[in-house]
Amino acid sequence: PVLNFTEELWEQVLTLNLTSAFFLAKAALAGMVERKSGFVVNVSSVAARNGGGLGALAYASAKGALSTMTMGLAKEFAPFGIRVNAVSPGTIDTKYHRNFSNDQILNAVKAATPMARLGTAEEVADVILFLCSHEARFIQGQVIEVNGGFS
């Protein structure tokens, strides 16, 4: 909850989910500009659109900023032949969610998802690979939802 959040925790969450992505992209983009080619695909979250669950405000805020950063980078680097997009996964069946969520929460997410299941890491990876492919050559500055219809 917001009232229990410290400035240190807020900064940690933003560093992990936003600042690190910015500096990683910055480091990679220098070489891409020289080659006039490249791809950046950020990993946002459905929380960027819906505010996240209880206690996830910092995470949702960071992911919302990451989505906005993706659009800004796309505009800045398109003239250099660099495509910048993001994927926005819903709840993905990972060890993290199995360890830090409970069955009641995961079942509620499944029930709220039209496809009635959690996504897989492979499904997210497939979209990332597509965004880096020739077939996605005119996709720029987009945040692609990978969430089984969850909204």
In total, the number of strands is 3
CATH architectural category: 3-Layer(aba) Sandwich
CATH topology: Rossmann fold
**Which runs of at least 5 residues are low in confidence (pLDDT < 50)?**
none
Question: Can you describe this structure in just a few lines?
Answer:
The protein has 151 residues and is mainly α.
Features:
151 residues, 3-stranded parallel sheet, globular, mainly alpha
Description:
The protein has one domain (2-146): NAD(P)-binding Rossmann-like Domain (Rossmann fold, 3-Layer(aba) Sandwich). The protein has a 3-stranded parallel sheet with strand order 1-2-3, sandwiched between helices. The two termini are 22 Å apart. The protein has helices spanning 7-35, 47-50, 57-77, 95-100, 103-112, 121-131; strands spanning 38-43, 82-89, 143-146. The protein is globular. The protein is mostly helical.
SSE topology:
Blueprint: H1 7-35, E1 38-43, H2 47-50, H3 57-77, E2 82-89, H4 95-100, H5 103-112, H6 121-131, E3 143-146
Parallel strand pairs: 1-2, 2-3
Helix pairs in contact: 1-3
